[in-house]
Design goal:
Length: about 230
């Protein structure tokens, strides 16, 4: 995992990977459309502008904002080297990231966020691809219906005004900062197996735990997505 200049944290490949290979499962809290909508609005109203809610089929969503796998650090590209896909394991539908083309060590892993939920805000895409659609999730099914464009006061990720990261939080790798101008910090609590983690706000101008959407905080869902079919 590495902090990148413009899109926050990203996931880099640490071995040569062949096209078609499975990389990682997308995990998080499985929530409904209503919960995703409320959760996204709550995150946004608390200035948490990096959103980690994936829309599976418009009805089921995986929210990896606070709990999930390292898949939640994979950034979007309009010309990605990975793809997101669903598959059935023992009757349960899972969501994973697969490599589209051979990748060598050190390359950033990316996939298209066309199925992501962005909670009401349009986020400027900084992938730099020639075919860039300029806004994350622009092709997603619910994009036009539920998203709005940030206008006045939206200084997020403007090239001249990149998010400021507090170096205090760089001293150990298990600490990441959010991208809301450096005032949202979260700490990775690894599960000991290195595959999943839990995020918790740390101090500074961080939002308190009690400020999170209580509905999302309190409901007790397990890791791993259970969704159906293969069509997003
Ligand atoms: C699933 S997270 C990816 C990890 C994130 N970069 C981080 O620092 O935690 C998705 C968020 O990353 C940012 N992001 C990912 N890809 C991006 C891109 N191509 N351009 C701008 N922001 C991007 C957006 O804020 C998005 O809501």
């Amino acid at each position: 995992m590495q902090k990148l200049s413009c899109s926050g944290w990203g996931l880099l490949d640490d071995e040569n990977i062949k096209a078609g290979q499975f990389i990682i499962e997308c995990c998080g809290e499985v929530i409904s459309f209503d919960e995703a909508k409320k959760g996204s609005q709550a995150y946004e109203s608390h200035d948490l502008k990096d959103v980690y809610i994936i829309s599976m089929d418009g009805n089921d969503f995986i929210d990896s904002t606070w709990k999930g796998s390292f898949a939640r650090f994979i950034n979007h590209s309009c010309n990605p080297n990975c793809e997101i896909s669903k598959w059935i394991v023992s009757g349960e539908t899972k969501v994973g990231i697969f490599v589209k083309q051979d990748i060598s060590v050190g390359m950033e892993l990316t996939y298209e966020y066309n199925f992501e939920w962005y909670g009401g805000a349009n986020v400027r895409c900084l992938c730099g691809a020639a075919n860039c659609s300029l806004i994350l999730g622009a092709k997603s099914r619910r994009f036009r219906e539920y998203n709005h464009v940030w206008e006045n006061g939206d200084d997020r990720y403007i090239v001249d005004d990149l998010p400021v990261y507090d170096s205090t939080y760089d001293e150990s790798t298990p600490v990441i900062s959010g991208t809301s101008g450096g005032n949202e910090h979260t700490k990775i609590l690894n599960d000991g197996e290195g595959s999943t983690f839990k995020l918790e706000p740390t101090n500074s101008a961080t939002k308190k735990k009690s400020q999170r959407n209580p509905k999302l905080k309190d409901h007790n869902r397990s890791l791993g997505a259970s969704v159906q079919s293969n069509a997003y």
